[in-house]
Amino acid sequence: xxxxxxxxxxxxxxxxxxxxxxxxxxxxxxxxxxxxxxxxxxxxxxxxxxxxxxxxxxxxxxxxxxxxxxxxxxxxxxxxxxxxxxxxxxxxxxxxxxxxxxxxxxxxxxxxxxxxxxxxxxxxxxxxxxxxxxxxxxxxxxxxxxxxxxxxxxxxx
Length: 157
Hints:
- By secondary structure, the protein is an alpha+beta fold.
- Helices cover 27% and strands 40% of the residues.
- It is globular, with a radius of gyration of 18 Å.
- The mean pLDDT is 87.
């Protein structure tokens, strides 16, 4: 499922384009392959054409497994940083894409910058939606996970 959003231009800032994507894979291993393909694609093509009038350049991916670099919230986390250019907003402007894997699910958010938006602004705009998506997914997984057999009080004892 994909949702796209735009924060309209205001004052000294151009329009900020945001997206959120949730993908359900059959297995956690298939979700791992999605992350591996993203890393491989960035290494092969640090410049990518998104649409006929949009391009991201200078892409750099930062992967973190559970327990690495403060990742205490997902099996895997990827951050992709770069520069965004389009005919509508010019550029280059900051570009940010973040994806986390929790079990067989991948959750991704992205921000395509414009005039007046810093990379820190993009991180700020994506933080709460991404945290909220992860929390809702974890709550749903816990609700739909059967109790271990022989459990009497729900905490495994």
